[in-house]
C-alpha cells in the first residue's frame, strides 16, 4: 500500500490521528479485538506497562511527539528532594518521556521512525502495538453494521542498517570478540542442543579490520534485498572461523556472531540476521538533550544513511 494514498489520506495524517487517540493512557497489551473491554481495575493492571502520547506536532512530512511510558506499581512512593513529604504512587506508573519522530516519503511504503532511548529503555514495542490496535479500532467503527472489509494500518518496524557506523564501532574497539557454535539435534529430535562453543578475543588490529569488512559486506547484502544471496548465520560462522585460525575454518559450524558492546555498554550479537538491532547513537550521559538538538541529530543521522537504504525522505529544516 502506498503511504501517499490510503483512502485519500496521506499516512502522516493517519498516524498523527492515531497518536492523538493515545492521549488517554493505555495499559498492558491491547485486546485481541476492538470490541473487547480494556483492563481498568488496579488488580488487572498492576505490573503492566502504561503509555500516553502528548505534543503531537506535524511539520511538513514529519510527525514529532512525546511518549510517556512506565509500569503500574513499579515504585511505592515519590519522595521530595528535601524530605518534607512523600506521595503514595503504588497504584500509579512512574513514567519517563521519550521523544519520537516519524518521517514519511512523498511516495512509497517505507518511512523512518526515530526514537529516544533512556537508560536502555525504548517505547517502540508498546507504541507499535497500540497504534495497530487504534487503527483496527478505527476501521472497526467505520464498517460497523456493514459488510465492508475492515481496513487498518499494520506497521512493521525494522532496524535501519548503518554499515559505515557498524564498521566504525568494530574498528574503534567495541567488538569484544567472536563466538562460534556447533549444534546437534537431541535424540528425540525435539530441539537443537549446543555441542560446543568457541570464543575468540579480537586483539589483533589486522583481524579487527577483517571482521569490520566482513560485517559491512553482510549489511550490504541485506540492504540490497536479495534474499537468495544473503549470507546465512552458518556461512557467517565459517567466515569468522577463517579469520580466527586456519585450524578451525573447516569446522561444521551452525552459528556465529561478533560480540559488540555499543556506546551504552549494551552487549549485542552481530551476524547477518541480527545486525540491524545494534544502532543507538549516544547524545548525552548525564543531562537531557534539548529538543532542537535531538531533532537535528536525528535529521543528520537519517540523511546520512537513508540513500543507501533506498529511502527518499525530504527532511524539513529543524
Provide a descriptive summary of the structure in words:
This protein is α+β, with helices and mostly antiparallel strands. The protein is 29% helix and 24% strand. The chain is built from 7 helices and 11 strands. It has helices at residues 11-21, 42-45, 124-142, 163-174, 205-224, 233-244, 291-305, and strands at 26-27, 49-59, 62-72, 77-79, 86-88, 93-103, 112-115, 175-185, 192-201, 255-261, 267-270. A 5-stranded antiparallel beta sheet has the order 1-2-3-6-7, sandwiched between helices. A 4-stranded antiparallel beta sheet has the order 9-8-10-11. Strands 4-5 form a two-stranded antiparallel ribbon. A hairpin with a 6-residue loop joins strand 4 and strand 5 (86-88). Helix 4 (163-174) packs antiparallel against helix 5 (205-224) and helix 5 (205-224) packs antiparallel against helix 6. It starts with 10 loop residues before the first helix and ends in a 13-residue tail after the last helix. The model has no long low-confidence stretch (mean pLDDT 82).
Q: Summed up, what is this model?
A:
By secondary structure, the chain is an alpha+beta fold.
Shape assignment? globular
The side-by-side strand order for the widest beta sheet comes to 1-2-3-6-7
Elements, N to C (H/E): HEHEEEEEEHHEEHHEEH
The proportion of residues forming helix, as a percent range, comes to: 25-40%
Radius of gyration: 23 Å
Biggest beta sheet attributes = 5 strands, antiparallel
**What is the average of the pLDDT values?**
82
Percent strand: 15-25%
| Low-pLDDT stretches | none
Question: Helical region count?
Answer: 7
* Total beta strands: 11
- Structural class label: alpha+beta
How far is it from the N-terminal to the C-terminal residue, by CA? Answer: 29 Å
